Structure formats: C-alpha cells, structure tokens
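Case study: Urocanate hydratase.
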Amino acid sequence: MEAVQTKSFKEQITEGIPTELPSPKRYEVDINHAPKRKEILSEEEKKLALRNALRYFEPKDHAVLLPEFKEEVEKYGRIYMYRFRPDYRMYARPISEYPGKCEQAKAIMLMIQNNLDYAVAQHPHELITYGGNGAVFQNWAQYRLTMKYLSEMTEEQTLVMYSGHPMGLFPSHKDAPRVVVTNGMVIPNYSKPDDWEKMNALGVSQYGQMTAGSYMYIGPQGIVHGTTITVLNGFRKIKKNPEGSIFVTSGLGGMSGAQPKAGNIAGCITICAEVNPKITHIRHSQGWINEVIEKVDDLVIRVRQAQAAKEVVSIAYLGNIVDVWEKFDTENIHIDLGSDQTSLHNPWAGGYYPIGISFEESNELMANNPELFKIKVKETLIRHAAAVNKHTAKGTYFFDYGNAFLLEASRAGADVMAMDGIHFKYPSYVQDIMGPMCFDYGFGPFRWVCASGKPEDLAKTDQIACDVLEEMAKTAPIEIQQQMQDNIKWIKEAQKNKLVVGSQARILYADAEGRMKIAEAFNKAIAKNEIGFVILGRDHHDVSGTDSPYRETSNIYDGSSFTADMAIHNVIGDSFRGATWVSIHNGGGVGWGEVINGGFGMVIDGTEDSDRRLKSMLFWDVNNGIARRNWARNEGAIFAIKRAMETQPLLKVTIPNLVDDELFNMD
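Here is what the predicted structure looks like once written out:
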C-alpha cells in the first residue's frame, strides 16, 4: 500500500532524494512504456551497474534497494528507480509555482517538467521524451537531485550535468549559463550502438536525442512547422497542388507525430502508418490525426474517396508501413510525396518494427532474441525500399526525413544506392529542400515558451511576432520573401490549428534578424507588464546547431560534412554570449555516433541585461552556421552572410573564391 503524500509540491522539490524511502510504485500498464532493452551486461557489469545506482542513496537503504534495482535491470535492461517517481502530477507549471532563489533556475525546472509531461513524453516513467531513447535523465534519482539543485541555485552558480547526472553546483557569475548539459559525449571509438547500450545500462551515459536531454522539447508542435514547410516545398518542387494529392509516411511517436497535422496544414491527403496502438490512439485523441484505419483494404477505399472529393484529411494506418507501400502499388494508387519518420537511428531497440510480426511479439523478440529481431528488421527494410522504388519509378518524389532510413536500409542490403555506389538514390529533405531553401539563408526553428503558463500570453506573443515579421517583409530582399510569407501565414493560423501540447509554446522559422527583433519586442512587452517572462530556444535541427552528414549538413559539399566544428563552436559561443543554459550531445535524430548537436535556452525578463544577451547570442547562434555554409560555397549562405556583414560592422567573415568548372575540362 502506497503512503499518502502530505508534502507540498515545493517541499518535494526542495527535498531532493527523500531521507526516508518512499513506498514502491505500482507499474502502471496503461502508460506507454519503453521496451525492454537488450541483455548486454555481464554478471560483473550488472554488479557495477547496481553499485553505480546505489551511490545516490544512504548505505542504510542499500539492502532494501539492491534487490529492487537488480529486478529492474533483469526485467527492463535498465535501472529506472521507479520507486522514486514523484507523487505530484508532471507538467509545466507557471514559473511562480516553483521554489527557488533564481528565476532562470525556475524556468529550467518548468522546461524539465514539460519534457516529462504525460501528454508530451513518449515513455514518461522511463524519462524518455521522444525517439524511443531520447532521455531527460537516466533515472528518477537524477531528476530529484537536479530539481533540488535548481531550487537552491543563485545567479552566481552553474549546474553541471553529465548525461543526466547532476555533478553539482559550481561558482560562476550572473552572465554564465545557469546549466551546462552534455549527453553521450564519449570517446569517438566507443560510439557504436552497443557501446551506448552498455554505457546506458551501467548508468554512465545517455542518449539525449536533440531537445529531450536539453529540456527544450515542446511536443509535436516543435517539428510540425518544419514538416509543414517541407511538405509545402516538396509539392512546390514537383510543381503539384497539394489539394487531392497524397503524402505517405510512417511514425506517430514524438517528432513523427507532427506529420499528420503538417499534412493538414499543407492541404493534402496524409497517410501515416504506426504499429504502436497506444501512441496511435493518443495522437488521435489529441487531434493530431483525423482518422484511424486498421485494415489496408479499408484504407484503399478511404483514400480513393478522399482523392475524389479532394479532401484535406490525415489518416493513421494502424499497421506496418510496408503494407501501405505494397498495397498502393498493386492498387495503382499514385503517391505524390513519400517519406519515413520512424526512429531508425534506433533500429534494434524499438525504433522500427518488422512486418509480419505483431507489435507485442516484436517487443518480446527484441528483448529475448535480438539477433533474430535484427534479421527481421533488415528483411523489412529491404521490402520497404523495394516498394518505394516501384512507386518512384511511377513518378513519386521520395525523400529521406533524416531519420537514418536510407542509411540503415543500405546497411541491410536494400536497393537504395545511386549508380556511383557512394551516394543514396534519394535525397535527404535537408539536402533537397530545407538546406538550400531555409538553412542557407539562416531560417530555422526559433521557439519560445510563455513561463506564466497563460494561453493569453501565447496569443499576445503570436501577435507580436506576426507584427514584427509583417514589418520586416516590407523591406526584405526577394531572396527571402517566400520564407517570410510562409512564416507570416503560419503564425496567423497557429491558434486555430491547436498546436499546443504541454507548455504554452510556439515555434516559428526565422532568420537571425527576425529572431532578434521578435525577442526584443517580447522583452519590451515584459518590461511593460503586458506579458510574463518568456523562455527562448530552438530545435537543435537548425542552421548551426547540428553537424549531421545525412541530415542537417547533407547539403555541405566541400568534404566537411563529417566534421563537427560548427556544433561545438555553436554551444561554446552561446555559453559566453548570454544563454541561460546550453547543451551538446552525441547522437540525435540519426543515431549514436552519427551526429553532434547542440542547443540553448534563454530566459528573457524585460531587463536591459536580457536585451543585451539576446542580441549578442541570437546573432552568433545563427550566423555561425551561415558562415560555415558560406565557406562550403552554398549560394544562399554567401548571400546571407554578406547581408549580415552589412548590418553588423564587427562581423568579418572569409568569403570563398569560386573556381570556374571549365578549368577542370582543360587537357
């Protein structure tokens, strides 16, 4: 029987790890749980994992906790410390409800709780926000200790976070970041998937994804805008009106859950397959998808109806995506745009499921016979790619959504390679769409959260942002008018599209000028008491936050796409230019060892200090990436960095000299 909790929310936060053990928690079967992780530790390593877990607790409690943690590592492959889950409801409270000595620290607590909100997080009891393994913390002791430290923090301290573990508060100063986060930063030779499995099972490293381990996830909205722009520009690329056209994809988890909503906003027919019944029905209940269909024959009938009526509708197919591609081929249903957003960065641990095996059976196979599971996944990837190839031969435009679909399909032996045997036959969406049309010009996923928790504050910030963009559009050069108009349309319709899940947050693609002007306008409104504090941030999937050769930097052609200087410089530069917290991760989106990505959070409070910091940091945060893309000879970036130098005389960037291709044709 669980003890009745009599302590207030603030008391529980400041308590940290309880001095008296709380009662064991019931395993709630109605919660979407992470699958059991593969058996990877030796008996001696299991003992080490247990010692690592017990060091959070007083020796007097070790005899009670040892068998409990031993059961967890045997049963789930990880030690989550379920007993220490808080009794209070997990959600982003108004900033005024958090205990503390520092408003910046309270804002970070708000963002952490938002990442673990049941409406936001994919596996909330395992502290996984999205992507199957994108963790905020490795266990509940880390969560409790971190929240305690934040409640004690002053503006003269910085909290140091090592892959979910709060190392402690260190003396610093008011302009230093309040928190510095690293996730999965291992020695390069130890970045194979099994290395992560072992280190995570030992409790010494974690996969922070992008905005999971950096406390900046805002639910599916965080990706819906970028997906909308991608789908819209995909149709523009093939010169097709979205009305009555078909977009086929898969995945309804964290990031991928945005796809149906984006398809609706773009104005097409969206079919999105998902094998997990629980997450499918969650997305349907949240209004992110219009309909759920469980039989592929029924799907064919419904899609033909939608085509005939030119409906704007999103349909979840509860089943394997391969069924859809293969059935639509035999039924001659033309797919206009195709992609995939399953978590193939994590193919062997729940990111992608094999065809012909139920969801439950797959989870059993994954844990108990991982080698056979891997074979089944590879066989499915081969079939998946073969079905896609049949459609592209009929005119379908297929793009990789940066989830490592093509990478893992190629490793499985699927027919996805170009004639040269080096490149893929299909482009990454960044390579073909987002890179040249947005990132090169500095447009990326700027976002903000209203710390008051008030919907009316969000509505006011929407209007402020819209006013700023409309004013900027009057004098914006022709090269970026399309981007400006897309974002003005987006922000005007944001309220009616009901994008908020969890915190009162908004995302908007903007360049450095737009971000600074919007943030400056927010700061002025806060100073006038028109709105409460605002927390600025962005997706790591941005102009300069991430070095990822198969996604964010896939349109870098000078040979530097496998280097990570940009992401490292980004987080270092943000940290001394005024960010409230900074983060840098190994892995994220395309897999452990495949990408380095960084992010930030910034609290603005209406003061002159905020105004100074936001102008300094946001300018660097974007232009660092434009400078790198310019040096790679990207035409849009050359234009953008020259324009930035005109506005800021202290900016001096090296411009590449272009070589005439004809010189290489001379004998």
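For the exam, be able to explain this: The mean pLDDT is 93.
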